């Protein structure tokens, strides 16, 4: 897709999955096209999941006017994970790949900053990723006084950090290398979310890094609570009401363990297999947390409290 003038530049693929995103998609594409790109070139690949609004018409117009945009229409609803992976399949031989949500707005330095961090930190001989911070906004892009990752946040380092995450590092915050792309596309077990698979692979290969730079507006919709959990009461509600074990996440963990059993350390393998067993009762989970050093959000005490409260008042799910 790149022109002759850009053949000697580093190429980076922006990978986007769309579905009924007409309200915000143009603003997001404009922010990507405005990136500061002195020493690299951007190709944009978009997979649309049979939107029933004007999303297809909007992205078609962008494709017609921009030589670096390629789009494809899915004949049926693939779901977000497969839609992103379908977009990833469209890519060529770029050096790096960045996932893009359809409704965010990127700062004009996002790609450059992630690219520099990837060059400095990642081992490109094995699957890896770097992820950044973001400013959480409401649908009008008004700041919600919170970043995606708070100031005391510690980056994901091991499987213990992932056990009850019910997903991975936020996909639109990450840049992945070519080895990661190839590993994702060759993965044959069940995938819950594309960013969960990337996160687990980054941990598996000890090639995942966090930079605290705030590089985009992470837009939250009315039915999304991520940006509104501010204050003790809301955080407490989230602690006891959000699923401790997401069934689809557990299904993914089970398949991941089966696929990479020869690469996962024995102690981590045991923990992952325990967590992937969705039949675990609250008592079993409490025992696991106490005696196997299992944590949630990096804290074993938070996990023990959550299991205890949910065992008392709710069905552990």
From TrEMBL:
Matching InterPro entries: Glyco_trans_2-like (IPR001173), Nucleotide-diphossugar_trans (IPR029044)
Domain of life from the UniProt record: Bacteria
Record keyword Glycosyltransferase present: yes
One function term, GO molecular function aspect: glycosyltransferase activity
Gene3D superfamilies: Spore Coat Polysaccharide Biosynthesis Protein SpsA, Chain A (3.90.550.10)
Sequence ranges assigned to domain Glycosyltransferase 2-like in this UniProt record: 14-157
EC number: 2.4.-.-
Class in the EC hierarchy, top level: transferase
Transmembrane segments: none
Keyword set, alphabetical order: Glycosyltransferase, Transferase
Record Pfam families: Glycos_transf_2 (PF00535)
Name the record gives this protein: Glycosyltransferase
